[in-house]
Design brief:
Elements: H1 2-24, E1 28-30, E2 33-34, E3 42-44, E4 47-51, H2 52-57, E5 62-66, E6 69-74, E7 77-81, E8 87-90, E9 93-96, E10 102-104, E11 107-111, H3 112-118, E12 122-126, E13 129-133, E14 138-139, E15 142-143, E16 146-152, E17 157-162, H4 165-178, E18 182-183, E19 189-190, E20 201-210, E21 216-225, E22 240-244, E23 249-252, H5 255-270, E24 274-279
Parallel strand pairs: 1-13, 19-20
Antiparallel strand pairs: 1-2, 3-4, 4-11, 5-6, 6-7, 7-8, 8-9, 10-11, 12-13, 14-15, 16-17, 16-20, 17-24, 18-23, 20-21, 21-22, 22-23
Amino acid sequence: MKKVLASMTLTLGLLAAALPAYAADQPIKIDGVAIKSDVKAEFKNNRTMVPLRIISENLGAKVNWANSVVTIAKGKLTLTLQPGSATAVKNGVKLPLDVKPYIKNNRVMVPLRFIAETFGSTVNYSDSTVTIDNAPLLIGGVKVAALQNEFHMTMGGMITQYYGNANIEAVFDAFEANIGKKVDAPSSYSWQVNLDVPGSYYKNGQFEFLDEQGKSLTRYDIYTLLHSVPEEQLAGYEEILLYNATEDQWYTFSRSAYETISQLMNTAALNGFSKVISNTIV
């Protein structure tokens, strides 16, 4: 009997030792795309722990680290965490954590399910894969399947489509939340750089939200002011303008909003959520 118990204990011990390695090798997919990380997921107290920035940024959230406190923000939701603390704060309300966040290889490790579900995602475990799914963005009651970005240069241009429900929604919200006041159309605006007319605007990019058939639901164009003349001649001109092609209406826009959109799309591309449709740049 002692030998049987010892054998069972050894077996259970080996099984327990194997669990973290199994969990660490579990692929993580967000909206169908496998996410890569330089720090593997770990299994702690029956919870999958993942690098915070990898999971949060792929859910369209911003991460800020200051004074040993991590702040994750998306839309009107703000979540703060602190390594070593079993308490999180969501929009001012304290929430208990089953596992305390900790630092490994200069990465803050957090419970995957807690972070994902806090930001409205659904988490499932199937076929040794962790899947995180987000509800699709709806425009006029129609599902958005892709965000298509187009830009042109002197010689050629590029069209890229971006995927992932969380990414698409985050970019759309960045547009909607930062639309400024209505303005008249500038006298000169184009894909081409016009250095002869003071107050000319250059079209930096076209952002089109497409349905499952590839039909445009909404399109925004971002334009920046060309500084080709003395600054005194540009007094009163907005630095950045936004054109809503669907409404045929111009608005003021901020550089910080433009940078936020660029960052969201760069992160999406780095994590496999994009596909180049056309590239004629030479």
